[in-house]
Task: structure prediction
Amino acid sequence: MVGQAAARRAAGIILEVIKEGKIAGRAILIAGQPGTGKTAIAMGMAQALGSDTPFTSIAGSEIFSLEMGKTEALTQAFRKSIGVRIKEETEIIEGEVVEIQIDRPASGTGAKVGKLTLKTTEMETIYDLGQKMIESLTKEKVQAGDVVTIDKATGKITKLGRSFTRARDYDAMAAQTKFVQCPEGELQKRKEVVHTVSLHEIDVINSRTQGFLALFSGDTGEIKTEVREQINQKVAEWREEGKAAIVPGVLFIDEVHMLDIECFSFLNRALETDMAPILIIATNRGITRIRGTNYQSPHGIPIDLLDRLLIISTSPYEEKEIKQILQIRCEEEDVEMTEDALMVLTRIGMETSLRYAIQLITTASLVCHKRKGTETSVEDIKRVYSLFLDESRSTQFLKEYQQEFMFHEIGK
Amino acid sequence: MASAWLETLKSAEKTCLVQDGRRKVHYTFRDDSEMVEEYDTRNNELVVRKWKKKGTFGGPAERWEYEVGEQMVPTSVETESLVVSSSNPIFVRKDTKKSFQWRIRNLPYPLETYDVSVNSDDRSITIRTSNKKYYKKFTIPDLNRLNLPLEQKQIKVAHANNTLIVTYEKPAEMMEMERQVQDELKKMKAEKDGDVQCNQS
Result:
């Protein structure tokens, strides 16, 4: 990331807070002009939190849907951001591969069949392999002498390492090859694994009408409040028994000015509950009308909610920063650009917008390819600058030629 | 603690049905788990006992777990993932009136190969083979439910027709408890197959 030192420092402090689990239930507002990296900061926070903390990202307009109410969509988003860490028993197969045999049909097409012999120190079992299993075994490059675990429910294969008994002095092998003991006892074991699931996932599993399969279909519709209450109670029970721990995550709502007054009052209430996640909202509006009312308010957010927020503001990028961002972007898109062209592009970025300048990188490089050049030059930039209008030139153009467009009389 | 388990059985919601020469009893317990027992109508021997318990996160369990008897599933030849090959040993519990019995088919090795022992610390029985081909650790849930001890001297092992038969003689308390369960079940009115009322609203 480039620039925004103050905003990033603030985000860093909030990360610290989230990690320590201190103030679940507070909210943060990231405010700033368009194209100043608000979303980028939120995404960065998500990455810094790691995969174990639930992070849900939605856009403000996503909650308006015909299929479910606004508050239902918000509740679901909230519950997606609260994780429950719980122990669950799963059945796994753990053993050393004795032999793996895959038969391809003589015709070359059709299903493959195979056999896998696994052993522990005490026993040996032969398994028949299906198509999918053969594919994942070949993908993992499993061979005789490897110690593997196979999750029975999902079919996921994990290589633990090579068996000690197969170790030879002069075997050529990679430096990271690990040697492990051959497993003991039974091949099929029940193992306790720790999962983090979100409250929403538990909701979906328990909402009778859809059952278990709804998790995969994605479309869940509304969930009854009774179901939610039951689950809250169950989770509280687990927590007291020490079976589960609650992991408050982060809910990020982009373009929050799209929410209306009802949603804001719902948020107010929701933040007060004891299991609320950290709420990060972002907006690029100044003082504007709150949707659903005729009142003006800073950021289009009611004052009572604003009062609960910690506000981080982002400022427009400096020239040097814009240059750096464009440079990074060029590398990302594999575009080589002359120093002069980059200077011109930076000026364009300063005068119009950063996003427009970024768009020009790819288009200019295509123009460069067309004339069989290797390095994108000032000429190419000039060409695409004349081909594609930026927002202010487009407005200018419309003002000049308004009367020649359709329906212009209606607007007057 | 024989009475505790008996009380649980008594308090459970029960339905009884006679079908295909079997008396099938369905129990629903207080914690929403379900159990089905099937008795042979001729000699009242337990043929099947299976359980369906709730998943960790609530929601229905996907399948029945067999405690006694064998699950008859049509194994399709074209499976996606992996299945235990049919040439492997198959472990089934099959009780008689006086004893618990386990039959492990597809075990061709002679009787001297096997070592069946009781571990009293985790209340389980272990079958080992000296040629390291088969190993199985299992418990007797019936005895656990009544909190009765496991004893090595009750175990008998036999081998015939590629099958290893492990027999554990039921203790007297167990027999007594089963008699009481039978008495309880006799009081129930069994529905005959086919005359189930189906009210259409």
Observations:
- Chain A has a mean pLDDT of 82.
